[in-house]
Specification:
alpha+beta; globular; 123 residues; six-stranded mixed sheet; Beta Polymerase, domain 2
Length: 123
């Protein structure tokens, strides 16, 4: 992993832009670059009220990232039920939850040592 790669920061910004565009709730970026046990540089997390909106947010993240960056999606999980969709871009892992699933799994608490930045909602 290249923890200080400028393109990683561009990817994070693009993911956040897509989440905001599709009205993702409680968007948070977790900067994990300083953690010894980090599996990536950043988690970007959002939630939505329905599986339809989870699917729409995740799909738009994929579309905008493909259009605006050189980053390739390595793996995707969770579209079948859209309770929790995970998009793995290597340095950046995107999580889009239904609200109750986000509350249950509490990723922000699991990675409490990461630097969390709450993104102001645009609506």
């Amino acid at each position: 992993m290249n923890f200080n790669n400028e393109s990683t920061l561009v990817l994070v910004d693009t993911v956040i832009e897509a989440m905001k565009e599709k009205k993702g709730n409680s968007i948070v970026s977790l900067d994990m670059r300083h953690l010894d046990n980090a599996i990536c540089s950043f988690f970007v997390i959002a939630d939505a009220q329905s599986s339809t909106q989870v699917d729409a947010i995740a799909s738009y993240v994929e579309e905008l990232v493909k259009k605006q960056t050189q980053d390739r999606l390595l793996k995707r999980f969770g579209y079948q039920h859209a309770n929790w969709v995970l998009l793995d871009y290597g340095d950046v892992v995107v999580h889009v939850f239904q609200t109750e699933h986000r509350e249950f799994y509490q990723l922000e608490e699991l990675w409490a040592d990461a630097k969390a930045t709450a993104i102001e909602e645009a609506y």
